[in-house]
Amino acid sequence: MKTPSETGPYADFIAALDTVRSQPLWDRYHRITTRQPLSATPAHLWPWSVMEPLVARAVSEVAMSDAERRVLLFSRPEAGESVATLRTISGGLQTLLPGEVAHAHRHTLAALRFVMQGNGAVTNVNGERCLMNEGDLVLTPSWTWHAHTHPGKGRMVWFDGLDLPLSHHFDSMFFEMGAAGLPNVEPPLVRAPAASSPDATLASDSFEPGIGSTGIGPSRFRYSADRAFAALARSSPAPDGSRLLRYVDGHSGGAVLPTLDCYLMGLEESLPTHRRRTTASAICVVADGEGASVIGDKTIPWKRNDVFTLPHWQWASHTATTRRATLFFMSDRELIAGTGYLREEEENHQVEASS
Ligand SMILES: [Fe+2]
Question: Residue 220, SS3?
């Protein structure tokens, strides 16, 4: 659609600009500099009751030799052919059967796994063997070798979280297939100390003495469910009754990965969290219990293993309808904070203008 300038007294001048791939700012200034984020993406729910039969079909119909990784990616309705779940982050469901192997590879996109169903699989990250039980979080930072095996029993399903859209945006993707054995190499660079973090945090198993009774040693890349849920229960509740635990990098005390920032939120029955909105966006996995979230003008009822999005800059509140409920969040908050674009508000109270 032509702007007023393109049909008005400046038409000839703007046409001249157009021939050299230039544009005037003055007539499109307010279209470019919106008063606030447009937040056009509505929240979306992928119920486990809908996805589980498709996971079962993937297992029965798709051979690992064809799939390499047997993953069902979540793609938001507006994304078209894109594999983006939100603007910077993507999620999916990966499944692995006993005896199956997802062979080693590495890529510059960062990823993590939150185990939704099953026990006993192992993710090998740069030579470190990370046990995967329900509720565990395992990281595969950028350019780390990683392979999945399942010496245990029963089907495994885990949430795959990725910064795939961001990697595509920056056109910074590199990918490499690995050999049969994985080198035990040094972890990625140690990051600078975090500026701030919530009161309750959880570092990886390697920072916890005594971990390793499973026969698999403590890992820099694994956050066991037992420790995470216990730490959440010990944390102090917020004024609205909710509890928040941040998984942190043991060296920096900040987000687990530069682009992926993870939290557990504990909810008490019938106590809605204060309404908050943030310029960060997140994908949520229901780790435990049932409840509902009001996000923008949508109400999303949820139960265990459901996945839903928390798009940026939409008021959101979460309520448990069971005695307790626990939500796992993977967000781009650390990334947004690092750019200076983080703004967070709680109803009638601005929490943080930027950090
Ligand atoms: Fe991978």
Answer: coil
